[in-house]
Amino acid sequence: MSTTNGSETGNGHAALTATRATEVSKLDRVVIRFAGDSGDGMQLTGDRFTSEAAAFGNDLSTMPNFPAEIRAPQGTIPGVSSFQVHFADYDILTPGDRPDVLVAMNPAALKANLGDVPRGGTIILNTDEFSKRNLVKVGYDSDPTGDDTLSAFQVHRVAMSTLTQGALADTGLGKKDAERCKNMFALGLLSWMYHRPTEGTERFLKEKFARKPDIAEANILAFRAGWNYGETTESFVTTFEVAPAKLAQGTYRQITGNTALAYGLVAAGQQSGLQILLGTYPITPASDVLHELSKHKNFGIITFQAEDEIAGIGAALGASYGGALGVTSTSGPGVALKSEAIGLGVMTELPLVVVDVQRGGPSTGLPTKTEQADLLQAMFGRNGESPVPVVAPCSPADCFDAALEATRIALQYRTPVLLLSDGAIANGSEPWLIPDVADLPDLRVEFASAPNATDDSGEFWPYVRDPETLAREWAVPGTAGLQHRIGGLEKQDGKGSISYDPDNHDHMVRLRQAKVDGVTVPDVVVDDPSGEARVLALGWGSSYGPIGAACRRVRKMGMPIAQAHLRHLNPLPKNLGALLRHYDKVVVPEMNLGQLALLLRAEYLVDIHSHSKVAGLPFKAEELQNVFADLITNLVPEGVK
């Protein structure tokens, strides 16, 4: 990631160079939201702007927001697709609460997003789409570009479709194909406004459409036309600069949560020396884990797209039985279908990583929206006593480390592990400091190589355990002298024979629970700068960013507050109980109805203030700031009974 000054755009960074004198405003952060119909290319536009911000050296965080319907009627609110990017010259934690700039490609995009734009914010409209027909589709009685609807905002009316078609008039493209390039016109205009590099986008377009050079050239021309429009029109009198962020030294790249998770699994295979088999079935928002891993066969990765969720995990578990590391990826509905096979993994005590990229439920629910409502399913969603460790990343980049940690636990303790990501993490992106391979954990395992029976029979007993981890020995089928029986019926301790003995069943149930309870996890770390906080904000998963940003705001208000975040949800860190009791009030924000709060109350008998949100969208720092400030304000003064 570059550390050059933002004012250098156009001096070696960009293929296009500014000539018109404009006022340049220096900002420390900006939030931009691109919004349009699902066919308008808003995700590509936002992703390209994000890539250039990353190459320039800004810290950033993004929030793609996809329509829930596969193809909603064009020009309607259900069909609106948006991409929000927050970039800054300092470390940031969230995609931003409200967009400083809204680019609305049609009336539906304006109506769906206008409520989020603060007074005085900038709105850039594609006026060509504000026809009477399109206005009626979304319930506008009059054209908001011509009445007082937008009087509180800085509005720029740009005929993007017309200008794009004009720029491409000599290319020979038809009107429809030419109009499809209007998203690149918008990208060019915003790139000019914020002094973004342009060479990377032009190179990307040439590579993306390498087999269709006429389409590549059309998109590049539209991109340049948008940049030149900003340069020549008198509508925009100010441009903006956001300098590169001062991040830790190293090599960075922009990465999404799903890609980081896939890379973590690749690294886990290399560090363990095991082949990875991903047995999976495509499901939103987890499918990109499959897509990314399928590109890395050179690292010993096998990807198997099964006919259904059950077949996917069955293949993964079979791979683990055969001496590989089985992985399966899904979302909440798929975890429900996989529950019996996860129980089989608990019974057979084989390593297995189950990735759950959570989405809104129940049932099919909100496939493209985010939620944290699978925690209790991960903990208890199997028949019988079937404990499994549960790990949750806190950000897109953290998915890499979380995948390695889930693998460590699965291999060291011979158990399935649930890894709980979610839609906000999976699709969001941020800079990732590429680690040094020498710093990655050693995950190598030893397979059983000789009989181990304790009765001098010379047999191999599959349930002879490591006294420290309680993990059983892992024998690769076909190893001479290690014949053994395995399956889903209860086992006799040690020998592994089928057993219906009541005392043995009680013993095995408690033993499997003890193994999970004994998983070593690091203590939870508290951020309490003043040491005077009486309120602790505790989160897990993707709530990390909003909680952290809200705590920063509360501290700037002069109120002390502590923050802690849980990666390990089962077992919980050993110091957590004492930590919870140290504070007068513990608040747990969750995108569910209070599932972690329920577990903490039951485990530690501590009063937890649960703050819930199940809207399919992440928390905003603003809303959590108000919650935290109210709790601190309403605390009984110390010493008063």
TrEMBL record:
Which segments constitute the Pyruvate flavodoxin/ferredoxin oxidoreductase pyrimidine binding domain? 279-493
Spell out the InterPro entries in the cross-references: 2-oxoacid/accept_OxRdtase_asu, Pyruvate:ferred/Flavod_OxRd, Pyrv/ketoisovalerate_OxRed_cat, Pyrv_Fd/Flavodoxin_OxRdtase_N, Pyrv_flavodox_OxRed_cen, THDP-binding, Transketo_C/PFOR_II
Q: Which domain of life is it from?
A: Bacteria
What molecular function does GO assign, one term?
2-oxoglutarate synthase activity
Q: What enzyme category does the UniProt record give?
A: oxidoreductase
Q: Name one GO biological process term.
A: response to oxidative stress
| Stretches that traverse the bilayer | none
Keyword annotations from UniProtKB, A to Z: Oxidoreductase
Q: Where is the Pyruvate/ketoisovalerate oxidoreductase catalytic domain?
A: 39-226
Instruction: Give EC number(s), comma-separated.
Output: 1.2.7.11, 1.2.7.3
**Entry's PANTHER family?**
2-OXOGLUTARATE OXIDOREDUCTASE SUBUNIT KORA (PTHR32154:SF20), PYRUVATE-FLAVODOXIN OXIDOREDUCTASE-RELATED (PTHR32154)
Q: What is this protein called?
A: 2-oxoglutarate ferredoxin oxidoreductase subunit alpha
